[in-house]
Design goal:
By secondary structure, the protein is α/β, with parallel strands linked by helices. It has two domains: 177 residues, Glycogen Phosphorylase B (Rossmann fold, 3-Layer(aba) Sandwich), CATH 3.40.50; 169 residues, Glycogen Phosphorylase B (Rossmann fold, 3-Layer(aba) Sandwich). The chain contains 14 helices and 13 strands. The strands form two sheets. It has a seven-stranded parallel sheet with strand order 3-2-1-4-5-6-7, sandwiched between helices. A six-stranded parallel sheet has the order 10-9-8-11-12-13, sandwiched between helices. It is globular, with a radius of gyration of 21 Å.
């Protein structure tokens, strides 16, 4: 099977795309995979390191407000379609898969116009601009949230979960001592995405003092840009400040309470690993999709939510200790999380692609 995969801009798109690519290679050793991404974003470095051929195209997203920059974006989109058609004709794929980010729009559109089977994956509980456009041209649309499949009420929309969940289950369990943590103590992990959050970081400087001398440990992942701001602040030994955590999923398997943004990949990981969480959705993302993601879990009593505007130390402390101390409440959270777990998401997607293409497994 020959496959073109396209996704870009953020890890929330790139890593699910790579999870799908890895599953295809696992199931079909002879599969040929070409990744199409933007020529100036993080995928240009991540994808080749993951072992896949990469082609970059120059493209920019449309501004939601009236802007002269949209003229340039429209020009790059049209030029991108022409380049994608050349790439597709040369590679001659059996299927084209879009996994989000504005780069995937011209790829899916070009594939459709050339009569190539195509499908997309939406990570969030509501469609972003790109996938809303691409869904019109896709033969199958894979979604991470059951609520989105039910909302669309169309057979081409298929609930598969997020393929990152399967990778999370395979990850080894962390040794807490490797992170400077104590094996016998409960762990509260606070992380606001790989880059961190300036707003949350500023609040945490003082809020973390409320956790001083507790009988559990708190690890706050600042993000590399904000770590230096915490070096001068003295906390007690149960509080660990780090700029970044490699292999975060492995540490999640040892986490008793996660305080996190509500990105789609994070929610798929906590669902598959059954991690009790307090979600602080980013209010700065398109169409407030993190809040919608979070509420899918919160409405089923599978997570707690604390909006950024309401974040203060006393509230956060009470919510953390509710999770750490109330065994009945935590059991309910974990039991309800099971409704969201999909242990074989990447495999489901592979099986649907095979059905679409009509090749033998």
């Amino acid at each position: 099977m020959k496959v073109i995969i396209s996704a870009g801009g953020t890890g929330g798109h790139i890593y699910p795309a790579l999870a799908i690519a890895n599953k295809i290679k696992e199931k079909d050793k002879n599969a040929e995979i070409l990744y199409v991404g933007t020529s100036n974003r993080m995928e240009k470095d991540i994808v080749p390191k993951a072992g896949f051929d990469f082609v970059g195209i120059k493209i920019e997203g449309l501004k939601r407000s009236l802007s002269l920059k949209n003229i340039k974006s429209a020009y790059l989109f049209l030029r991108g379609i022409s380049k994608c058609k050349r790439i597709i004709k040369k590679f001659n794929p059996d299927v084209v898969i879009g996994v989000g980010g504005y780069v995937s729009a011209p790829v899916i559109y070009a594939a459709h116009k050339l009569g190539v089977k195509c499908c997309i994956h939406e990570q969030n509980s509501s469609f972003g601009m790109t996938n809303k456009f691409a869904s019109k041209y896709a033969d199958k649309v894979f979604v991470s949230f059951k609520s989105l499949e039910e909302k669309m009420n169309d057979r081409k929309f298929i609930y598969t979960g997020n393929p990152c969940s399967e990778d999370a289950l395979k990850a080894p369990v962390a040794n807490k001592e490797d992170f400077g943590l104590t094996p016998g103590k409960k762990l509260v992990l606070i992380v606001m995405g790989s880059l961190g959050s300036k707003t949350i970081g500023n609040k945490m400087k003082s809020m973390l003092t409320l956790f001083n001398n507790k009988d559990y440990e708190v690890m706050f992942v600042t993000g590399k840009n904000y770590y230096d701001e915490f070096k001068k602040i003295k906390y007690t030994n149960n509080i660990k400040i780090v700029p970044y955590v490699d292999k975060m999923v492995s540490l999640l398997k040892k986490t008793d309470c996660l305080v996190s943004r509500a990105g789609a990949s994070t929610l798929s990981e906590i669902s598959s690993l059954n991690v009790p969480s307090i979600l602080i959705p980013s209010p700065y993302v398109t169409e407030n999709h993190q809040y919608k993601n979070a509420m899918d879990l919160v409405n089923k009593n599978a997570a707690m939510i604390l909006e950024e505007k309401d974040l203060n130390g006393d509230t956060l402390l009470r919510m953390v200790e509710k999770i750490l101390d109330d065994k009945k409440f935590v059991k309910e959270l974990k039991d309800n999380l099971k409704a969201f777990e999909v242990k074989n998401s990447a495999s489901r997607i592979y099986d649907e692609i095979v059905k679409l293409v009509g090749v033998k497994k």
